[in-house]
Amino acid sequence: MGCWIIAGITFREAARKKILWTALIAGVGFLALFAAALHFQIQDFNARATAPFIRYQILSAMLMIGLYVVDLLAVVMTILTSVDTISGEISSGTIHAIATKPLPRWQIFAGKWIGFAGMVAGFVLLTFGGTIAVAYVMGGVVPQNAFHGGLLVLLECLLTLSVTFLFGTWFSTLTNGVIVIGLHGLAFMGGWLEQMSGFTESARLVTVGVFTSLIMPTESIWRRAAFEMQTPLAGSLPFSPFANVSIPSPAMIGYAGFYLLVAWLLALWHFGYRDL
């Protein structure tokens, strides 16, 4: 099928432009830093004869912080690696090398999306799975519902990828990047406002956070993933990225899936009809 051919071309093009290798280096670098931090913390525990319960809770908190960074890194890498794939090829005219061949435009679009989705999935597997593996081998801690949490992080990245493709069919590369990063920043701020509501006891902050989640639900997906994976002690803290404050419901995750589908279909529709 044509879309699988385009997906393969997308992979090879990413390797040629060193996108794959840059993402790999960034992921391995993060894992090395996380392992070093765990190593030093465990050494401090051994020197102070820290109680096993305190030791486990601190290492679990470090693991959640590591996964939080993985989530942010995965979303940013998704945007930076895919922001130029549609808009850049249209503006440079290189899209004509593919679009003039006897392939429907929907197969070109779907193939590119599948190619980048595969790269994103590989990056999430490397960083998310690697972080959990490092924490388990070095500290003996694992998150709850790790598989479910990993799927939610992947959903967040695929949603971001679809939104990036959508605006890539409308705007230039620079404008596309500014819009998508701005939307994710808006969602990030809204999520933190919701978390602050547990400290300030302000229902209005929750309303603002929910509203921003409807505009861009990426941060809601992460907060649901954090709720699924964290320990009860971490969830009881009123002011943290992992607090059990205004927890996104399964309905919000369903909305995020619907949002992804609508963004993907709109991007496909506009790519099929716009002048290349």
What does this protein look like?
The protein is mainly α and 276 residues long. The protein has one domain. The protein is built from twelve helices and no strands. Helix 1 crosses helix 6, helix 2 packs parallel to helix 6 and helix 8 crosses helix 10. The longest helix has 35 residues. The model has no long low-confidence stretch (mean pLDDT 83).
Proportion in β-strands: under 5%
Rounded to an integer in angstroms, the radius of gyration calculated over CA atoms is 20 Å
Number of strands: 0
Overall tally of structural domains:
1
Weakly predicted, low-confidence segments = none
Spatial gap, N to C terminus: 23 Å
| Mean pLDDT, all residues | 83
Name the descriptors.
mainly alpha, 82% helix
Task: Give a brief outline of the structure.
With 276 residues, the protein is mostly helical. Helices cover 82% and strands 0% of the residues.
Give me the secondary-structure topology.
Layout (H helix, E strand, L loop, with lengths): L1 H15 L2 H30 L3 H31 L4 H6 L3 H4 L5 H35 L6 H23 L4 H28 L2 H13 L2 H12 L2 H5 L13 H24 L3
